[in-house]
Amino acid sequence: MSIIKMENISYTYDKKKNIISNLSYEFEKGLVYSIVGKSSAGKTTLLSMLSGLAKPTNGEIFYNDLSLSKINQFDYRSKYVGVIFQSYNLLPHLTAEENVILSMDISGKKIENKKQVALELLKSVGLNEDIAKRKILKLSGGEQQRVAIARTLSFDPDVILADEPTGNLDQDTENAIMNIFIDLAKQKNKCVILVTHSPKVASMSDVKYELKKSDIQ
Length: 217
Description:
By secondary structure, the chain is an alpha/beta fold. 36% of the residues lie in helices and 25% in strands.
């Protein structure tokens, strides 16, 4: 059963350029999806629509069979769908642990012993307590990506969206990050949707959706 469904989605930029035309995709829990395509094919736009940050010009997106237009967008992004941005969007003046705790606070979910939960989440993505206490600017790109994943998991969303999650990482770190996403899908029953240029990431995904020229007018 699909947790997210797109029906005949189109997106027009500036009322002139049609970036995406009549696109229909379905996404299920327990699977890793990769969205691929050439630059300017609309991959990031598609992710923005799935996250509720952008609205389709035509068509409709459903979450658990309920139209996104009928769901409170703050609740959608702070409780049900976690977004990992390409630039991570972590607060540099805070530690890794504090970034995760802040996400819990924003979600509004009742979570006891947030500090311990944050440390456990960071540990689950391969970061020990010493790293958890460091400021973001003291971390490597791979470590920051892991913090971004842990932050997203802090409110236990059903869906995880990531924009080029391995774009700035070396091959070994890319493999490690992908293994985290695969574990989240297979062991935690999350729906993981990745926008990527990486053939390796696409090959490690369960399903690949490719935005082709026929999707653009």
